[in-house]
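Let's inspect a concrete specimen:
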Amino acid sequence: MKRLPIFDELAALYAKNGFNLYMVGGTSRDLLLSLPLEDLDFCTDATVEEEMAFLPEGSDYSFARYGRVKLGKSQGRAEITTLREEGEYLDHRHPSFIKFVKDLATDSRRRDFTINAIYIDSAMSIHDFHGGLDDLRSKTIRTIGDPYIRFREDPLRICRAERFSFRLGFEIEERTLEALKACYPLLGEINPAKLEEEERKGWIWRK
């Protein structure tokens, strides 16, 4: 597994200030699959208020209330999110509350698929709470927890499951696929702009 210079530099900066930084989501997934990396997804136990004291100039704090910071283009288009716990989803898109936490296991339970909930720390050690590594090896798309609940929480996960399946050549696990098909009508309640964004990423709308 190759190292990422931008991650090493940022992880050292976070460590210097008393915090941890991890690769997660598509970054750790594609790194483990030896695929090209596009936008970089990192997470941390630092809050945005704490990050403001040491992150480089040009960082974008417009989504600070969600615990999210975007670094400038000169820093490699990285997005850093504070570890968090989420409340019940009330509108098929947004959780009723966000609570910032310090532990990876809690953060992992809010994520969509097992293959997107693999954390890699600054020592390149892997933290996998839901069998994501096994699903990478077997080329399987599987939700974390009950797939019916996960797709009802946020129907855009349906688009993501299909897009990952097509892009990676993975099979959608049987119960996950069953729930995906049952929840497909919920896509009609999603903001069309969000669906168009998924289409630009390669998802095909199967009406």
Q: What stands out?
A: The chain has two domains: 5-138, 146-207. The radius of gyration is 17 Å. The mean pLDDT is 92.
